[in-house]
Amino acid sequence: MSNYNSQEALKQYRQLGLETQINNATPHRLIQLLMDGALERLNGAKAAMERGDAATKGVLIGKVMGIISGLRSSLNMSVEGTDLPERLDSLYDYMGRRLLEASTFNNTEMVAEVIDLLKTIKSGWDAIEPQAQA
Length: 134
Fold this sequence. Notes:
With 134 residues, this protein is mainly alpha-helical.
């Protein structure tokens, strides 16, 4: 019999891998990691809703709300010549309100809507990566 809990060891390994990614990440990559984390948790929240697991749903939606807040606070609102930061801020605000509704009414379609919106934002963010590194 092993002295190690394999699930706990796996959790620690994953955490270490994430910390390594974060420590070595560019600011652009950090935003990608936040978006990836939000999408992963949104899919988990949607699955929890489908299973009737209210506790897990609540935890995961709460985490996504925190990530969205982080994405909003990372916007550079002083960029001149574009309204993109303001539009993203409004979209993130909408997504947060939509998630509150989804959680309240246990509505997977609302979660799916937020997933689609975030995927669209992420695809645009991913497309600018080569320019960000240049």
